Amino acid sequence: MENKDSKSEMIKSMAFRLFLDRGYDATTIRMLSRAAGVEAPSIYHYFGSKKGLFYAISESYLEDYQELLKESMKHWGADPMNQILGFVKFAVWYTMNHIDETKFYLRYRLFWPAELSEDMEKHFHKTNDQKEDLLRDAIRVCIETGSCKVDEQTAYRSLINFVDSCTFNIIFSNWRPDEQELIETWQLFYQSRIKLGKGDFEL
């Protein structure tokens, strides 16, 4: 007999695919129950609502992301530039190895369904705060030591834009850099936007 955990995980797995491919608004409880092979009351029993199911899915992968990031951080050392580069490497690795999860995040981080709009910022804040705290702490040290010639906010936004550019190129342009290519790309970005604080950079 299928236990509660396996049934709820199966529902989440099928719902993830529907939410990713069709979108939240276009996915109904009826579609979800058909895809998962369960009666609609089972979905309400485990998750309370479609919204509850959505948040259960996104919370699962956000927690996985946070744990993977924490594990990666153990290998970056205390040097702030190594920490920033470590985050860039992690972001690229994660995207290449978790394409669907990244697409899901981007879809619902950038285009919130109306039903979820009041909760989405709060829902994603822990992951966003984790990344922002990490980068800003490293940037402040780089500014103090002279390895960063721009102000904290400019450096932070530039780094986020760089990581976003990497993410979009992996997903939409099938970019698959090896470590050497990624480091070379990072060095070009760092020299133009962080160290010298001038010039344009296009990935």
From TrEMBL:
Sections of the chain in a coiled coil: none
Domain HTH tetR-type intervals: 5-65
Keywords, alphabetical: DNA-binding, Transcription, Transcription regulation
DNA-binding residue intervals: 28-47
Top-rank taxon, per record: Bacteria
InterPro entries from the UniProt entry: DNA-bd_HTH_TetR-type_CS, Homeodomain-like_sf, HTH_TetR
PANTHER family cross-referenced by the UniProt entry: HTH-TYPE TRANSCRIPTIONAL REGULATOR YJDC, TRANSCRIPTIONAL REGULATORY PROTEIN
Protein's UniProt name: AcrR family transcriptional regulator
